[in-house]
Input
Amino acid sequence: MTDLDLESWLEPRLAGAPAELAEAVRALVGELEMDADKPEQDVPESLAAAAMLGLEGVLDRAEPEREVALRLLAADAALTYAFEAAASLGRDVDALALRIGAAGELGLRLEQGDLRPPDGGIS
Output
């Protein structure tokens, strides 16, 4: 990672999280690190990418199973940590929000049908 190692930034924050959630966040980050073809990203971008990865395939189930719910919570935590990292490292949090949010990557995925909110969900 460019300014700071992702694990060094993330581990102190996961220390206070419930063990199952902390492991789920680590698993998302681990999935991201398996893709050796991608260039290295900084901490906020890596965490945002892990969050997007965590959302894949979980919102299209009408009745999520516990495993799916845990993955969704881990994606939420990773995205929250992405914004915390951006703020703590003096990055442009607004730019990250615009790139990821409803008008950005998340909105595009919803529009393309890559993520589908469950029936009755907010779209």
Summary: Residues 6-112 form one domain. Confidence is low (pLDDT under 50) at residues 117-123.
